[in-house]
UniProtKB/TrEMBL annotation:
InterPro entries: Alkb, AlkB-like, AlkB-like_sf, Oxoglu/Fe-dep_dioxygenase_dom. The gene is alkB. It comes from the Bacteria. It comes from Parapusillimonas granuli. Dioxygenase that repairs alkylated DNA and RNA containing 3-methylcytosine or 1-methyladenine by oxidative demethylation. Has highest activity towards 3-methylcytosine. Has lower activity towards alkylated DNA containing ethenoadenine, and no detectable activity towards 1-methylguanine or 3-methylthymine. Accepts double-stranded and single-stranded substrates. Requires molecular oxygen, alpha-ketoglutarate and iron. Provides extensive resistance to alkylating agents such as MMS and DMS (SN2 agents), but not to MMNG and MNU (SN1 agents). 2-oxoglutarate binds at N122, R123, Y124, R206, I207, N208, F209, T210, F211, R212. This is Alpha-ketoglutarate-dependent dioxygenase AlkB. Substrate binds at W71, Y78, R79, Y80, D137, R163. GO terms for molecular function: broad specificity oxidative DNA demethylase activity; ferrous iron binding; methyltransferase activity; oxidative RNA demethylase activity. Its cofactor is Fe(2+). Binds 1 Fe(2+) ion per subunit. Residues 115-215 form the Fe2OG dioxygenase domain. Keywords: Dioxygenase, DNA damage, DNA repair, Iron, Metal-binding, Methyltransferase, Oxidoreductase, Transferase.
Length: 215
């Protein structure tokens, strides 16, 4: 039995953090037993790696992808590709429970019919962070983005439409799902340096996956 299901009083709540942005507390908890082995399978075929940004910085967050398209970066820029540049093979297929979780979470937040073609999987170790950015490498901004957090908690930064806009802080815990769409889709966002608070299942790791309609 998954004790996390009953662990905290937040589970099952929906918090609205923007006009079209919702945190579904604990929404992914019933799926964790399917998600973790699926992540291991993806990682075996397409290992996590620290990519380099166009500016020449190595990201502190390691990433991999599954689905038809995967997000990558190197000195030449950010883009979606249908193959893993490290192996030159297609990204691993999106596991069925991944796609179903994304579809159900989007529907619960009011976005019916979400069918992602890309899933970016981020792995944070203590100290890893993501600076404020917009997600704008996708072709169609009318689809929402669904994100699932597992493992160590993180402080998520939810900014505005300009980089300088003040960002709200939102704690994200194991099992939380966030859905962003509509006018919130292009808001700046980021993650504060991860504190070391080992998690019973994932140890000193945070995994975040974001489902996107990229192509
Ligand atoms: C808000 N990842 O991979 S997920 C990313 O926790 C990314 O790994 C963070 O930002 C993480 O690009 C945050 C949440 C997220 C994703 C897309 C958004 C938040 C968003 C798009 C618009 C506004
Ligand atoms: Fe992002």
């Amino acid at each position: 039995m998954n004790l996390d299901l009953f662990h905290d009083a937040r589970s099952g709540r929906c918090e609205r953090i923007g006009p079209s942005a919702f945190v579904l507390r604990g929404f992914a908890l019933p799926w964790v037993d399917e998600l973790l082995p699926a992540i291991s399978g993806i990682e075996a075929a397409a290992p996590f790696r620290n990519m380099v940004t166009p500016g020449g910085f190595t990201m502190s967050v390691a990433l991999t992808n599954c689905g038809a398209l995967g997000w990558t970066t190197d000195r030449r820029g950010y883009r979606y590709t249908d193959t893993d540049p490290a192996t030159r093979r297609p990204w691993p297929a999106m596991p069925v429970p991944f796609a179903r979780l994304a579809h159900e979470a989007a529907a619960a937040a009011g976005f019916a019919g979400f069918e992602p073609d890309a899933c970016l999987i981020n792995r944070y170790l203590p100290g890893a962070r993501m600076s404020l950015h917009q997600d704008k490498d996708e072709r169609d901004f009318s689809a929402p983005i669904v994100s699932v957090s597992l493992g160590m908690p993180a402080t998520f930064l939810f900014g505005g439409h300009k980089r300088a806009d003040k960002a709200a802080k939102v704690q994200l815990y194991h099992g939380d799902v966030v859905v962003w769409g509509g006018e919130d889709r292009l808001r700046y966002h980021g993650v504060m340096p991860l504190k070391h608070v080992p998690h019973p299942l994932l140890g000193s790791t945070r995994i975040n996956f974001t489902f996107r309609k990229a192509g």
